[in-house]
Amino acid sequence: MKAIVNCFDKTINPFNGDLAARISKQTLEYSRQHKLGFLKNEIIESLKIDNISEIFAKIFSRENIDLRMLNGANFNVYMNDSFEKRKVLLETSDIETLKKFDAINDWENIMDIGKAHIAKILKDQYDMSYHFNIKFEDFKK
């Protein structure tokens, strides 16, 4: 609300740089603690770990997904729903490995790292670039 009011009159709520820095730091700490966001280089480093991709390959392939749901805005929702339905096919050790590498969180929801690995195994360059700004050559060994 203060930002909206400030658009019209900057004297009502003067900018507080210290407050902005504190909020920014807390937001970053919160997202790290709850694994809500990952930096591009963290996702790239993760994509070099073949074990994660191999686990997702057990339940995702180009033959068992709706290719129409790739390439754009539908990707995130489709991957969330598909993983929710298919994760029961994974072994407990697979789930623990995915948690260990931040591909899923403690509540077994798929995270950006997991979605990037799925895009990798589906050879989905469009969504890899669109959602994560990553090219396949960025993580090739």
Characterize this entry briefly.
By secondary structure, this protein is mostly helical.
Largest sheet: none
Number of strands: 0
Helix content: 55-70%
Q: Average pLDDT across residues?
A: 89
The total count of helices amounts to 8
Quaternary arrangement of the chains shown?
single chain
Shape annotation? elongated
- Helix and strand content put the structural class at mainly alpha
- Unreliable runs, pLDDT <50, ≥5 residues? none
The succession of helices and strands, N to C, reads HHHHHHHH
Q: How big is the Rg?
A: 19 Å
Strand content: under 5%
Distance between the termini: 48 Å
SSE blueprint and pairings:
Layout lengths: L1 H7 L8 H17 L6 H8 L2 H8 L16 H13 L5 H9 L11 H10 L3 H8 L9
Helix pairs in contact: 3-7, 4-7, 7-8
